[in-house]
Amino acid sequence: MMVFMLRSLVKVLCSLVSNPVASLTTMLYYSDRLPRNVNLERLVRSDLLTRDNYLVHFIINMLRCLW
Questions:
Q1: Tell me: the pLDDT tens digits for 19-62?
Q2: What's the half-sphere exposure (Cβ side, CA atoms, 13 Å) at 40?
């Protein structure tokens, strides 16, 4: 289990370092914190939402619940 979370953490960190605005926009967009807008949809990266990216799904679900 730790290997999967470590791999997911590396993916999140790499995406945040390489493209921070698109990564944050993607997480906020799918957690319904941003309005559905055509201009914002251009920044959303669907490749962050792969099935094995557990940490991104966890962050999105936490944002849905807490914010």
A1: 999 999 999 999 999 888 888 888 898 888 888 889 999 999 99
A2: 14
Please state, in angstroms and rounded to a whole number, the distance separating the CA atoms of residues 67 and 13.
Answer: 22
Q: How many residues appear in the chain? A: 67
Number of domains in the chain: 1
pTM, rounded to two decimals = 0.84
18: containing domain: 2-66
Distance CA 22, CA 4 (A): 23
Question: What ranges in 1-67 are assigned the alpha helix state H?
Answer: 2-18, 20-30, 38-41, 54-66
> For residue 48, what are its two tokens?
């962050």
